[in-house]
């Protein structure tokens, strides 16, 4: 029975499979070309991970051995000295001396020698400005 018009299902086109075969061969060649570098990169990554894991395991073993050696040399009674929970006195904070208030001085109509004398004597030699 021949199929006519629009239908679902396999089509009996009668075409050959040469195009599919060529596409499959090209696909295999591309996969083969890509697979070698990808596998090499995966091997390198695995090697780095194994080296890092080996280093971490070795560090853990050395740390454990070091702790055991320290504890065995100090003895049970002396190892409790490592943790000292005795209260300590607080470190006293030194008191700061009060800084003098900043002074802003203007010398109007004073000679350089008079200004030098006033500055040598200090701020206490100046007359008080309170009440002005």
Average pLDDT reading: 77
Query: Structural class of the helices, strands and pairings?
Result: mainly alpha
Radius of gyration: 47 Å
Helix count, per DSSP? Answer: 2
Shape verdict? elongated
| Largest β-sheet summary | none
Low-confidence stretches: none
Description:
The chain is mostly helical. It has a domain at 18-81. The chain has two helices and no strands. It is elongated and about 120 Å long. It starts with 17 loop residues before the first helix and ends in an 11-residue tail after the last helix.
Brief sketch in words of this structure:
The protein is mainly alpha-helical. The chain is built from two helices and no strands.
Topology overview:
Elements: H1 18-79, H2 112-121
Features:
132 residues; 2 helices; mainly alpha
């Amino acid at each position: 029975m021949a199929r006519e018009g629009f239908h679902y299902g396999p089509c009996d086109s009668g075409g050959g499979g040469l195009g599919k075969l060529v596409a499959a061969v090209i696909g295999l060649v591309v996969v083969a070309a890509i697979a070698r570098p990808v596998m090499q990169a995966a091997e390198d990554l695995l090697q780095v991970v194994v080296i890092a894991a080996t280093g971490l395991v070795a560090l853990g073993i050395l740390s454990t051995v070091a702790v055991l050696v320290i504890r065995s040399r100090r003895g049970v009674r002396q190892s409790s000295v490592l943790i000292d929970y005795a209260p300590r006195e607080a470190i006293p904070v030194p008191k700061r001396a009060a800084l003098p208030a900043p002074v802003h001085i203007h010398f109007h109509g004073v000679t350089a020698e008079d200004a030098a004398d006033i500055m040598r004597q200090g701020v206490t030699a100046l007359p008080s400005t309170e009440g002005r």
